[in-house]
Specification:
Number of strands: 0
Helix content: 55-70%
Radius of gyration: 23 Å
Number of domains: 1
Structural class: mainly alpha
Distance between the termini: 61 Å
Number of helices: 4
Length: 115
């Protein structure tokens, strides 16, 4: 059988998906590794490298946005953003100084949903 311009070769649905998904998953994996290394470096620079992973996960978004602001992606003068940053610093310091437990710090830093 010869292929004409209007004829498409028979590619199974499975291989089509694999061809599409594989590069996407590889890119996500690469970006995730880079982001993880960058966040670990940020925690180390802030002196928070020894924090438990549970607490790091809870403040991950806060730290990520601080880094983005320091890189100049945006600038926030919002009083609520500053208040949240102060809250993060307070509870991380309280945990590190032994004033509160890990559970108390995580509970205080958990963002309440609107629903």
């Amino acid at each position: 059988m010869t292929l004409h311009t209007l004829t498409t070769p028979a590619i199974s649905k499975k291989s089509e998906t694999k061809l599409f998904v594989a590069p996407l998953l590889n890119r996500i994996k690469k970006e995730s590794k880079q982001e993880f290394v960058e966040m670990q470096q940020t925690f180390e620079l802030m002196g928070w490298g020894e924090l438990p992973d549970e607490l790091k996960i809870e403040i991950y978004d806060d730290i990520r946005f601080m880094v983005q602001e320091l890189k100049g992606y945006y600038s926030s003068c919002d009083q609520f953003v500053q208040q949240r940053r102060n809250t993060v610093h307070f509870w991380v310091s309280s945990f590190r100084d032994g004033i509160c437990s890990l559970e108390a710090a995580i509970k205080a830093l958990k963002v309440k949903s609107l629903a």
